[in-house]
Specification:
The structure is a single chain. This protein is an alpha/beta fold. The chain is about 35% helix and about 25% strand. The strands form 2 sheets. Strands 3, 4, 5, 6, 11, 12, 13, 14 and 15 form a 9-stranded mixed beta sheet that branches. Strands 1, 2, 7, 8, 9, 10, 16 and 17 form an 8-stranded mixed beta sheet that branches. It starts with 19 loop residues before the first helix and ends with a helix.
């Protein structure tokens, strides 16, 4: 169980972290007060992409659903991430084929495409203004990755019929991203970027409009089985439900030892510069595309609508953030864009996401009526809302996609409770070191 301290970034809070997203967010969602014990069909724990989407789809199907969020809706990773829109699963089709066979790999790829279509459906159906822009550049920083990227693009084009992805050679890469760090890469026009907090708030409004009951500032402290129903305990009363959905990702905080064995939190950090001259912003990254690179600890960046560079870089594997996040991220910015060495940073923040050993999400029915979906390993903007839908569908009896995802083997992290975190830190630090060599 996580040992919480007064400066632990996982502690519940009554306001959003000071981020560019919070400063530019749409109006907050009005939630109702939690006034004691509640009877419901489903209790969702967690007010991020997964939980909000699950609540939306359950409510659309006529289920009585209650959602509990310990802080504010979108307060965790869903409202703090880089906003990058990726297509497909976290692992590429050839890896999936090697692990699960071609038939299962194709089914998983289809789910990945369904997740991308679902994002479009959410934005269109509920008029969610989250500033989506098309185009995601994958930038290779080593020659060995250039060869791998070319093979990956060819494989998706020829074997999976995915024609939104193409290769980018050295000359075009330098035109698209004005950095000497990158040699070549690819461009996916079904990918892109968006304002993640506004997406989360938009899904929340959609859930409410369909009858879901959303509560902020209510921390779930226990989950117990009483007869045929689940009881979710809080400091303000309990929720009794037929089904419970854990949608906590990196903020599980001891609610399930089984999930914590397979899903572990890590911290990632983002800085946003002062507004740049529009001409400079367009030269640094063309056409308002997003960029992510080939590093183990990925650099991901893009321009905001008001011409700021939003840059994610660096990770930590403890429950504390660096004292000076702006300085922590600045050295990564300057590595890619030395021309911005003296540029002011206006916002810098950290957030906690969750990974699994295979980097594939951990969807499970832990016990009859108790579901978990988490461990998106940095690709939650597209997959997490769809995972929420898959869980909602499963509760309503449509279990095919949930079953496909839940059959993916996710081994536990090695080391047991005492050594799991130190083992993770050692392993992640070793691979991160390769980025500097």
């Amino acid at each position: 169980m996580v040992r919480l301290t007064h400066n632990n970034p996982m502690l519940a809070a009554s306001s959003h972290v000071r981020s560019y997203y919070a400063a530019s967010a749409a109006a907050p969602v009005s939630t109702e007060p939690f006034d004691g014990s509640i009877e419901s069909e489903v209790c969702v724990i967690g007010g991020g992409f997964t939980g909000l989407s699950c609540a939306l789809h359950l409510a659309r199907r006529g289920r009585r659903v209650v959602l509990l969020e310990q802080s504010l809706l979108g307060w965790g990773a869903s409202g703090r991430n880089g906003g990058q829109v990726h297509v497909g699963q976290r692992r590429d089709p050839r890896w999936l084929e090697s692990q699960f066979g071609q038939t299962n790999a194709q089914a998983l790829w289809k789910i990945g495409l369904g997740a991308r279509d679902h994002l479009d459906w959410l934005m269109r159906s509920y008029s969610i203004d989250c500033q989506f822009r098309a185009g995601l550049i994958h930038a290779d920083h080593r020659e060995k990755y250039v060869t791998q990227t070319r093979a990956h693009v060819d494989y998706l084009n020829s074997r999976y019929g995915y024609d939104s992805l193409r290769c980018v050679d050295a000359r075009e890469m330098r035109h698209l991203v004005d950095s000497a760090d990158y040699l070549a890469g690819s461009l996916d026009m079904r990918g892109g970027h968006l304002h993640p907090l506004n997406l989360a708030l938009g899904i929340a409004r959609a859930a409410q409009s369909n009858g879901a009951r959303l509560f902020e500032g209510i921390e779930a402290t226990s989950i117990t089985r009483t007869g045929s129903r689940w009881q979710v305990g809080t400091a303000h009363g309990a929720v009794s439900a037929d089904n419970v959905v854990l949608a906590c990702n990196g903020y599980l905080r001891g609610l399930s030892s089984q999930v914590q064995t397979h899903v572990m939190p890590i911290n990632n950090f983002i800085a946003v510069t002062e507004p740049l001259e529009p001409q400079l912003a367009e030269c640094l990254i063309r056409n308002q595309h997003a960029v992510s690179d080939s590093r183990f600890v990925v650099y991901y960046f893009r321009m905001t609508p008001d011409h700021r560079l939003l840059f994610g870089g660096g990770e930590t594997y403890t429950y504390r953030f660096p004292k000076d996040i702006a300085a922590f991220v600045r050295r990564h910015i300057v590595r890619i864009f030395p021309q911005l060495a003296s540029t002011r940073i206006d916002y810098a923040w950290g957030g906690t996401l969750a990974i699994t050993p295979t980097r594939m999400p951990y969807l499970r029915e832990l016990s009859p009526g108790l579901y978990n979906s988490s461990g998106y390993s940095g690709k939650g903007v597209v997959m997490a809302p769809y995972a929420g839908k898959m869980v909602a569908d499963a509760i309503c009896g449509d279990r095919d996609e949930f079953q496909q995802m839940s059959q993916i083997p996710i081994p536990p992290f090695p080391g047991g409770p005492a050594l799991r975190a130190p083992t993770l830190i050692a392993a992640m630090s070793f691979y991160a070191l390769a980025d500097t060599l």
